[in-house]
Q: What sequence folds into this?
């Protein structure tokens, strides 16, 4: 047990682990900020030395509770979602109604996928009620961002990078020229015909 663990935090009621308290305060700060933060910003906001923040971030990253973004900035990691799902599935409950509406309207399996580092992680999946067969991933499934449409869509939404995969570069070119089109599912033809009447 470290001196930090034995010492407790003077600002807290009762005894406890100062290291754990600092790590939780770091997670809370990452949760309330709507932007990625540098180690220096985190250290200043928490009143801690940068080296202590680095050590906490290393542990949090090992448990996927913090993730390193661009330019050495940090944000919450998607491991927080797994913990939240175990205790309180609020995030999934928030996206599932939208996924259900899309699944029924389009007649396809829908999913919410988020990025974590170089991976795409499936948060939630909803199948249409009239599905005869389906291809789907389970919630929590992971795959490299550059493999699969969901990961490529995430990469396409980001600012261009020199190491973007060819599929993202090509899609960006199509989008910039304004040639991108939605596939015709048949339902659109009926809507267009009704509008012309």
A:
């Amino acid at each position: 047990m470290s001196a930090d663990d034995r010492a407790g935090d003077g600002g807290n009621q009762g005894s406890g682990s100062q290291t754990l308290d600092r790590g939780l305060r770091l997670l809370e700060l990452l949760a309330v900020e709507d932007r990625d933060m540098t180690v220096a910003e985190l250290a200043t906001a928490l009143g801690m030395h940068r080296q202590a923040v680095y050590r906490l971030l290393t542990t949090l990253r090992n448990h996927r509770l913090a993730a390193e973004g661009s330019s050495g900035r940090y944000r919450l990691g998607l491991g927080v979602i797994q913990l939240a799902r175990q205790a309180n599935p609020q995030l999934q409950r928030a996206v599932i109604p939208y996924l259900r509406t899309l699944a029924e309207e389009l007649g396809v399996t829908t999913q919410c996928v988020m990025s974590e580092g170089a991976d795409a992680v499936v948060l939630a999946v909803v199948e249409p009620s009239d599905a005869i067969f389906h291809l789907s991933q389970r919630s929590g499934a992971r795959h490299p961002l550059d493999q699969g449409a969901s990961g490529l869509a995430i990469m396409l939404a980001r600012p261009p990078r020199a190491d973007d995969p060819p599929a993202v570069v090509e899609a960006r070119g199509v989008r910039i020229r304004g040639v991108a089109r939605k596939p015709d599912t048949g339902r659109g033809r009926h809507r267009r015909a009704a509008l012309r009447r």
